[in-house]
Specification:
It comes from Vibrio navarrensis. Residues 1-19 form the signal peptide. This is TIGR03503 family protein. Keywords: Coiled coil, Membrane, Signal, Transmembrane, Transmembrane helix. The protein folds into four domains: 29-110, Jelly Rolls (Sandwich); 117-135 and 142-232, Immunoglobulin-like (Sandwich), CATH 2.60.40.10; 236-334, Sandwich (Immunoglobulin-like), CATH 2.60.40.1930; 339-367. 23% of the residues lie in helices and 37% in strands. It contains three helices and 24 strands. The protein has helices at residues 2-25, 145-148, 340-405; strands spanning 31-34, 40-46, 55-57, 63-64, 73-78, 81-87, 92-97, 106-110, 112-116, 122-124, 128-137, 140-141, 153-159, 176-180, 196-202, 208-216, 225-232, 236-241, 250-256, 267-273, 279-285, 292-297, 304-315, 322-334. It has a five-stranded mixed sheet, with no helix packed on it. Strand 18 and strand 19 (250-256) form a beta hairpin.
């Protein structure tokens, strides 16, 4: 009897609970209610495809539009969907005015929180780290695929400046995007659609102090996480020594900085690709208490271009944090062996021919200059003669005119 009674009670509670849930999700005329305890809410509004963004109407009648900018609202739109995030929404009945599809209607995400891994106390330039972020709604992992696919979380580093907000926009440092999170089960992400976002961060910035920010690139998620981080110079150095003799292998040396890298923790993985696309894998590690690892790479002296890349693994001496430093792909060439004596003679002949051409060009230039000087002298001489002639003619004309102006003396014969 008691067992039957308890079953009936459980069924009644289940029905009431289900009815309450359906009442909450059944939105009459696209209306929904926001609880007073909610300080942040996100609306997923499914519309007919294609259609205009909806208009959100607050309980007091104030309207929100997709094309307007509001301090507490972020609006992301697609041809058939709106995702609207609102900080401190007004409690009470809201309404979405638009071509909302009756099948999917509107989904509400309340108490949306973003949690992330803390950045290490010190980052090193060139290192790669796995960084995760988690989205939760009402304390539970958020697994709504339509939302997760559109969050577009990213990590940026901005040079640290005191009182950055007081500077004019043009004077503020620009953020550097380190990577975009994904929740697709690819790369470093463990499981798709579990609300855990993962990104592979490569710290490719100059050493210094930065502000690390985790934000939503398209504004779907309103809030951002921020942390000050320090970036130090790379504690490892790599050196590749190419062999110049047949049969002698190439050498690759990795050195760790004293006090930064734990002794004996260095390990190296190298992939060397030959001109015929054959890939040779080489691995090595430092001896116990050593801060250097040396490896030999095959030297076949096959003519062509070789490439190599890899990763250096180490451990931070202070925190015992594992470190990974990728080695960017580099190339070197192997060419045919040449006759040094013949090459020397050819080079000397080339230099002699070059000197001969330069001498000919110098002589031609000198002759042209001499010819130019001669023409200038002739022109100047002719000009001087003309000027002197004009001056003489002018003086003679003056004298002649003066003489003609004076009357001749009249002589009288004396009378007898």
């Amino acid at each position: 009897m008691l067992r039957t009674l308890s079953v009936v009670v459980m069924l009644l509670v289940s029905c009431v609970s289900q009815a309450a849930t359906e009442s909450t999700m059944s939105l009459l005329d696209n209306r929904f209610r926001v609880d007073p305890t909610i300080d942040q809410i996100t609306f997923l509004i499914y519309r007919e495809n294609p259609s205009q963004p909806v208009v959100l109407v607050r309980p007091d009648g104030h309207k929100y539009y997709a094309w307007k900018t509001y301090d507490n609202v972020r609006w992301y739109q697609e041809p058939a969907m709106d995702i609207v995030s609102i900080e401190n929404p007004m409690p009470g009945p809201w309404q979405a005015v638009g071509k909302v599809t009756p099948k999917n209607n509107i989904r509400l995400i309340s108490h949306l929180t973003l949690s992330t891994d803390p950045f290490p106390n010190r980052l090193y330039r060139g290192e790669v780290i796995k960084f995760t972020a988690r989205l939760a709604s009402d304390g539970q992992p958020l697994v709504l695929r339509d939302f997760l696919d559109r969050v577009n979380l990213r990590v940026t580093l901005t040079k640290y400046v005191e009182n950055e907000q007081e500077l004019v926009k043009e004077a503020r440092p620009l953020p550097v995007v380190l990577g975009d999170f994904s929740d697709d089960g690819q790369g470093l992400d463990e499981r798709p659609g579990d609300g855990v976002f993962t990104v592979r961060l490569t710290i490719e910035v100059e050493p210094g102090k930065y502000r690390a920010r985790i934000t939503s690139g398209n504004g779907v998620f309103l809030r951002a996480k921020e942390q000050n981080v320090l970036v130090y110079p790379s504690p490892v150095a790599t050196t590749f020594i190419q062999s110049r003799r047949e049969g002698q292998p190439h050498r690759f040396v990795v050195s760790g900085e004293q006090g930064m890298v734990a002794p004996g923790s260095l390990a190296v993985h190298i992939e060397q690709t030959a001109p015929d696309s054959f890939v040779n894998y080489v691995q090595g590690q430092a001896e116990k208490e050593a801060l250097k690892a040396e490896m030999s790479l095959d030297s076949t002296h096959q003519i062509g271009i070789y490439s190599w890349k890899g990763d250096v693994y180490a451990t931070d001496a202070a925190t015992q944090r594992p470190l990974v430093f990728p080695i960017a792909e580099q190339t070197f060439s192997v060419v045919k062996e040449v006759d040094i004596e013949a090459a020397r003679k050819a080079k000397e002949a080339e230099l002699a021919e070059q000197r001969r051409i330069e001498e000919e060009q110098r002589l031609l230039a000198q002759r042209a200059e001499d010819r130019k000087q001669g023409l200038i002298m002739i022109a100047v001489g002719n000009l001087v003669v003309i000027i002197l002639g004009l001056i003489g003619w002018f003086v003679w004309s003056k004298i002649r005119a003066k003489r003609q102006a004076i009357p001749e003396m009249q002589l009288e014969v004396p009378k007898k």
